[in-house]
Specification:
alpha/beta, 5-stranded mixed sheet, two-stranded antiparallel ribbon, globular
Length: 293
């Protein structure tokens, strides 16, 4: 991916130099049980965000700054850190893309903040461990990511490459777009009236639309900045496949339960990313009116 020398976003909040006392963060003696619950939900394909309300909130306590070189205040992104440079550049690219698309529709794009953290973080959606993976909180309009996830993406899931990492960010920004368009609100109202299996299918449609929106970003980023290099699309497809519900379930417990999917199968995630990439159209990403995903 061609990203060096491009504009960087100022909407990056670095909390890697902050810590939360473990007993406070996870509710004292019940912390281990809650952590196991999060990991268990992740492995079984249950959306980890559904478990966040179970966690208690607390204030973060300043610690030593992240060892990325240079001097900076806690909460400020370290400009000398290579990974910070990358994520802030990708975030800026999503800002450019979605600002243009919203402007075409006569609307303003409300830029989200991307929060970097280590191990555990306090969000408006509750406390979250790194085990939940990258996530978007609609309450505070922030994307949260522990960059150690990228190491896991490469080593555990076999999905290396900078464009695979960019896809992860673009997917979470896709959830922000859904929030701005009112999709998240409509889904929350609807899922209260659904059975568990129906709610899971609705969650899959939400996630696949975010995958499609990440493809829309890639389409327009290529049009505006020619960011794609040979093999980049394959990297994104590899990441989409690696974190499909069927693959995760098969590796974690040896069999697959489609009714428990909350993010979509590997094939579905790849297909909807390609739909967005090839069309560049939000209208093509309507996963809710399609009988077959």
């Amino acid at each position: 991916m061609r990203w060096r020398g491009e504009r960087r976003s100022a909407n990056v909040e670095d909390r890697r130099g902050m810590r939360i006392p473990r007993g406070m963060a996870l509710g004292g003696g019940g912390g281990c049980g809650l952590l196991l619950l999060l990991v268990f939900g992740l492995l079984l394909g249950v959306d980890p965000l559904q478990l966040l309300p179970l966690l208690t909130t607390t204030d973060q306590v300043p610690s030593s700054p992240y060892a990325g070189g240079g001097s900076f205040e806690p909460g400020q992104a370290d400009p000398e850190d290579e990974r910070t440079l990358f994520v802030s550049t990708v975030l800026a690219s999503t800002e450019d893309t979605w600002s243009e698309l919203f402007s075409r529709a006569g609307a303003d794009y409300d830029e989200p903040t991307l929060v970097l953290f280590s191990d555990v973080v306090d969000s408006a959606c509750g406390m979250a461990e790194s085990a939940v993976g990258p996530f978007y909180c609609p309450t505070d309009h922030k994307v949260y990511i522990d960059l150690a996830f990228y190491d896991e993406l490469r080593s555990r899931f076999g999905a290396p490459g900078d464009f695979a990492q960019a896809y992860v960010i673009a997917h979470e920004i896709g959830h922000h777009v859904q929030n701005l368009l009112g999709v998240s609100r409509e889904v929350q109202a609807l899922e209260r009236r659904l059975s568990e299996a129906e709610a899971n299918l609705l969650a899959v449609r939400v996630e696949l639309q975010a995958d499609c929106y990440s493809g829309v970003w890639a389409h327009h980023a290529e049009r505006m900045r020619q960011v794609l290099e040979a093999g980049d699309v394959e990297e994104a497809l590899g990441a989409a496949s690696a974190i499909g519900d069927d693959r995760i379930q098969r590796e974690s417990r040896g069999y697959v339960v489609p009714d428990s999917f909350t993010h979509g199968s590997s094939a579905q995630r790849q297909r909807w990313f390609l739909t967005g990439l090839e069309s560049g159209s939000l209208e093509a990403c309507d996963t809710f009116s399609r009988a077959e995903l």
